[in-house]
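Methods: holo model generation. Sequences were used as deposited, without trimming of termini or removal of tags, and paired with ligand SMILES retrieved from the corresponding compound records. Each pair was processed once, and we did not select among multiple samples. The sequence and zinc ion SMILES for this entry were:
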Amino acid sequence: MTLDGDMPPAWFLNEPGSPRQCPGGGRASGVGAGRLGWHTVLVLVVDSSTPAVTAALVEVSAGGVTLRAQRCTVDARAHGELLAPQVDAVLADVDARPGDLAAIVAGLGPGPFTGLRVGLVTAATMGQVLGIPTYGVCSLDAIGHPAAAGEPVLAASDARRKEIYWAVYDGAGQRLAGPEVSAPAVAAEQARGLAVTVAVGDGAHRYADALGLPLRAEPRYPDPASLAALAAERVRAGAPGERLTPLYLRRPDAVAATARKPVLP
Amino acid sequence: MGPTVADEPLILGIETSCDETGVGIVRGHTLLADALASSVEQHARFGGVVPEVASRAHLEAIVPTMDRALAEAGVTLADIDAIAVTSGPGLAGALLVGVAAAKGYALAAEKPVYGVNHLAAHVAVDTLEHGPLPEPAIALLVSGGHSSLLRVDDLARGVTPLGATIDDAAGEAFDKVARLLGLPFPGGPPIDREARAGDPAAIAFPRGLTAAKDLAAHRYDFSFSGLKTAVARWVEARQRAGEPVPVADVAASFQEAVCDVLTAKAIDACRADGIDTLVIGGGVAANSRLRAMAEHRAAKHGIRVRAPRPKLCTDNGAMVAALGAHLVAAGVAPSRLDLPADSAMPLTTVSV
Ligand SMILES: [Zn+2]
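and the model returned the structure below.
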């Protein structure tokens, strides 16, 4: 799968996603730049902004982004349990070790806070240990960008409390509005003002009636290859890593302490 | 700090169960680093810890706090033998940041991870100051989040809960009384300070669950809700009468009531089981009156009180590392990578 740029180099076609072995047949210790050419690197992708807990490994080369392994489990209540074993599993899938990673891309949300933080803290801590850059991508972009095939699209995920996180993309996948959090009806009204004719994402499916827009089935959750593709320019350029700041969009629920109630009658 | 023994395990501990982001590093019983970032000031205007505010602060603080701890200890993650993390009890969202961070560090550095009990860590931290803990021991753990009395037979395998608060934690009562008296949050240190100038016998505040009929059902349990209300009534009555509130006397009398109950029940537990070691931990264990009263009462019965210095009593990463070192030395198996954060983790579970 190539998501950006031109045709992949020939060796991608020669080695279609199978576990790579060292020339001597031993455990791969350098899936990264050295062995595959200086401009091809192994990148970890994580996203925990929706009920879909996702870990993936991609190769980023001069010509494109190739998905090598992916684990995705839909469970809104177990982000903390699921993500680390999935990272471990995708590394094992391609017989790579953490030291083979050249960068980490993480979905910044928006998303329910507790789950969202799992992906970001996983990416930040792994990046710190490995001394590799971390890059953030708006998670809705990884729904709206791949879905925007020539026509404007509303991408949405579930924000709970009868609201959605949403953004609008033009036909080329560029974000025109958002990310924002609001009631589906408010999002639908703004989307129509931007000539949107179709909605995509889990939030759009859950609130299909309130949105009143035709639905596109895929992607329902942030697509890991798209997350990588949207950060690929930074990966290739060796751009400095960034601090992964979540797109919370909501303030913490907290009320300042009020005057004390009297206890005497 | 004693000399380190090179073959003792080098353990890193991560703590995020409440409002302190802590990363500690120990080698055996030797403390090498104790880095802390606190969000306490962000909670002050709310009069208590706001879970989401704490969770956000943990995410921002964890990487820089880890950097500081590693620099302080002069080691890298590659040198570490295992990573321990508080996996419960505590605030669910706050715990999860620490647990996910520990897994990220463990995965990337290819090290084992131990999910451990926060309260057991409060007991273990004293080993950094006073060496291996004699077992069995009685532990009194008091803070803003917990007030527990427990029996420790084997810290690596599990502790036995004897009693706990049936309403407010002791530290919560300090916070609420401090607010009543116009003192800052958290309330423990300012009440301790005010009380030094006051008369602890000035006002006879109630001692919860110490009457004969209560002791039958709640011998080792605590209750601080009635005390808190009694203080509020007393202060309000003075204000309505247009009389000044003697802050130092109220603080001293309130503190005396709390410490009286805590130490009486802790000593009772030691004597009932013939145990001569009492460990005190948790934020309230930093209170000077509690330490003095416990030592005075224990001495009469030949009981030795062990309490770490105040900085180790409050939540920190060193205590988690200390428990981790104890588990590794005892040959306990590490946790799996799918270990959960468990906000209601029982005391009987030391590691998962
Ligand atoms: Zn504590």
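The radius of gyration of chain A is 20 Å.
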